[in-house]
Amino acid sequence: DTAVSQTPKYLVTQMGNDKSIKCEQNLGHDTMYWYKQDSKKFLKIMFSYNNKELIINETVPNRFSPKSPDKAHLNLHINSLELGDSAVYFCASSQEWSGGAPGELFFGEGSRLTVL
Amino acid sequence: SQQGEEDPQALSIQEGENATMNCSYKTSINNLQWYRQNSGRGLVHLILIRSNEREKHSGRLRVTLDTSKKSSSLLITASRAADTASYFCATGFSGNTPLVFGKGTRLSVIA
Question: Per residue in A14-27, pLDDT tens?
Answer without folding.
Answer: 999 999 999 999 99
